[in-house]
């Protein structure tokens, strides 16, 4: 599980991250990056799968768990690249990511993080 200090929780924080409109999409996962950091604080991360993607909560939660675990492993390896330059990140799962296994989701998240400038 992702440590508590890395979780993005507030509705206002999610809205502020979406408002920046800095996004990229790969392999059924979309990444929204917030405002660049000015001071040394932790990057907060949120994971979202809409009810429009699938009506079953089990399917949505599985996709969120896969994305969260992939990010946690990258954090553990300290392989996050330029993603640590932002205050907040939001990973959004889409319908294309529903049937994928962990390796495919992990590759998509790695490519999204590498693609941040």
Give the topology, please.
Layout: H1 11-20, E1 22-26, E2 29-33, E3 44-49, H2 57-77, E4 88-93, H3 102-115
Parallel strand pairs: 3-4
Antiparallel strand pairs: 1-2, 2-4
Helix pairs in contact: 2-3
Briefly say what this structure is.
With 117 residues, the chain is of the alpha+beta class. It is 38% helix and 19% strand.
Q: How would you explain this protein's 3D organization?
A:
The chain has helices at 11-20, 57-77, 102-115; strands at residues 22-26, 29-33, 44-49, 88-93. It is α+β, with helices and mostly antiparallel strands and 117 residues long. Strand 1 and strand 2 form a beta hairpin. It is globular and about 40 Å long. The chain starts with 10 loop residues before the first helix and ends with a helix.
List descriptors:
117 residues; 3 helices; four-stranded mixed sheet; globular; alpha+beta
In terms of per-residue confidence, which ranges show pLDDT below 50 for 5 or more consecutive residues?
none
* Helical content band: 25-40%
Strand order of the largest sheet: 1-2-4-3
User: In angstroms, what is the radius of gyration?
Assistant: 13 Å
Cα distance, first to last residue?
Answer: 27 Å
Number of separate helices:
3
Give the biggest sheet: 4 strands, mixed
Beta strand count = 4
């Amino acid at each position: 599980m992702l440590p508590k200090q890395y979780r993005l929780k507030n509705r206002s924080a999610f809205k502020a991250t979406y408002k920046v409109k800095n996004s990229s999409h790969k392999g059924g996962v979309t990444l929204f990056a917030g405002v660049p950091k000015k001071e040394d604080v932790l990057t907060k991360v949120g994971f979202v799968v809409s009810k429009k993607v699938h009506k079953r909560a089990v399917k949505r939660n599985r996709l969120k768990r896969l994305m969260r675990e992939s990010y946690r492993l990258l954090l553990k390896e300290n392989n996050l690249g330029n993603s640590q330059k932002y205050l907040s990140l939001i990973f959004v799962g889409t319908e294309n990511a529903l049937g994928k296994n962990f390796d495919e989701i992990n590759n998509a998240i790695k490519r999204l993080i590498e693609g941040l400038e």
